[in-house]
Amino acid sequence: MIFDLDTLSPNRRYHLMTQGILPRPIAWVLSRNEDRSLNLAPFSFFNAICSDPPLVMLSIGHKADGEIKDSRRNILSERDFVIHIPSRQHAEAVNASAATLKYGESELEGLDLQLTDFPGCDVPRIADAGIALHCIKHDVHLLGPAQQAIVYAEIRQYFVDDRLLREEDGRHYIDAEGLDPLARLGGAQFAGITEPFALKRPA
Description:
The chain is about 15% helix and about 35% strand. By secondary structure, the chain is mainly β. The chain has a single domain (about 25-165, about 175-185), classed as Electron Transport, Fmn-binding Protein, Chain A (Pnp Oxidase, Chain A), CATH 2.30.110. The chain has a seven-stranded antiparallel beta sheet with strand order 3-2-6-9-10-5-4, with helices on one face. A three-stranded antiparallel beta sheet has the order 1-13-14, with no helix packed on it. The chain has a two-stranded antiparallel ribbon with strand order 7-8. Strand 9 and strand 10 (about 150-160) form a beta hairpin. The termini are far apart.
């Protein structure tokens, strides 16, 4: 079956895209609200796009009532924020943190998550997250009639749990199986890593 996207509503396009473009990494974004409280939200329109400068991309839209999402509001205010790569153990908390709350209400309330200082960053990090990226806004592009914000985030510091690292030939390698990253599928489905494997690079 071939779908003509010109004939579909934006909502149906979104549903179809998220059913087939998978698995998607999840950016679990911790940012500060204007009153210094913390906001936590997951985004699966996310990926690495450049290493010089070190940039990742986040696509952030609006709440159902048309207001911009709190993470977007905080990021646009030029403040530090932290992107975590959640593990499968965080699945319930990631899902719960997607709830729509009023600005200033923290998703952290009611979640069994411990925070720890992230030296050099104004925002803490989730203590048991294996990877945390201290980021600042690099640029923002607004796309389409809905003014979807494509946020280019510059990584200032890259935290990796020492237990996930090994060094070989001058390079650091991260244990993907140990990290057990959580991935987003379609609808309410998520996935983890079950059996990673390696291939030789082509000549």
